[in-house]
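Protocol step 4 of 6: structure prediction from sequence.
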Amino acid sequence: MAHLQPLYARLADRPALLAKLQAQWGLRSVAGQGKDLMATSSLLDLFEMLYAEGEPHVGAWLALQSDLSTGHGIAYYLRSCATLEAALHEIVRLRSRLLPDGEFGMHKDGQQLRLFMRPHYQARRLGRQLRYEAGVAWLICLLSHCAARPLRPQAIELMTPETAQAGQLAALFGVMPHFDRDEFAVCYPAEMLSLPLPGSNPALLAALRPSLDYLLPPIRHGVSTTERLRQWLHALADPSRASQTSAARAFNCGTSSLRRRLASEGSSFSALLQADRRARALQCLAYGEDSIDVVARHLGYADRTTLERAFLGWFACRPVQLRGELAAAWPDMAQRRAALEAVDTTLPCDDAAAWLAAAATVEPRPQASVRGPRLAALLLCAAGAPAASIRRMRMAPEPS
């Protein structure tokens, strides 16, 4: 919790919010820096809650309060590089460990250097965008720390939506960001690449490199096993081959170890696999033309009957009937995809009112039967929600 300690000063005049953070998120006052990091899934939820409480950019602010002397000595290591370009190349080399759920890269275009970041998955989830916004702040702070002087960006691009508090970010970054972009980016003059670093020490750099490579893997634990498994399942080209054994092999652990990790986070391989199958099944029916038999085989169901029985439990109808209802609601495939994929599917699964409100923003043809709770249930399915949440939504009363 050391990295959250500045919240006590920032929220000193909001004791009720601080009490909520302590009760709901385990925030506590600690001495020293500490090494206890909050799991990424919890951090995303925390950022979303603070956003709703009127603190939309607190993640970026926290990143600028961080002590760069901690964190496995990354800043100390990077400052040992000869130039800022060399330090940036090291960040690119370490990107999969520093940013296990996304991508980091650099691109030089004429007189401008562009450093970009983007999430690999759940890119539209507000909490994930806020975490990457904090990552932009951390990167700006890190580069200035390496150079031992402020390095002001020329421009900043953010995927996050613009808020009434956007001026806070302008004050933090020294430039007003551009919001609602396709990725996160920080732009500097390209000449900055040749900037010599005052801490340059080739011998120290060579000595620290193997140690840093050894120490960095634990950073991966900031992303929950549940979240990593969801990502792994989503990336499989052939979901019928998904098994607990193959997942454990991909995670470099035994099946028992994987089972224990998931259980400690309140999930299981079976539940996550079924959620992935539900989401894929709906996608195949909504946007594909394969027969139900082909869809069932592709997803790893024993046969068509098994898939149909599952659909009856989720939506009280068979796959072919649901496909027909979707076609009636949106005869044009492009319009159907645009309508359904425009909805934010990162809402809490048990917030029925929020999902009904999201469904209300979708406009199928007036005579369509896929609307209200039924449409909200489809959106929940597409988001990989538990079967129980989908069934509850499907049976929810129509909003008055």
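Step 5 (inspection) to follow. Residues 140 and 151 are 8 Å apart (CA to CA).
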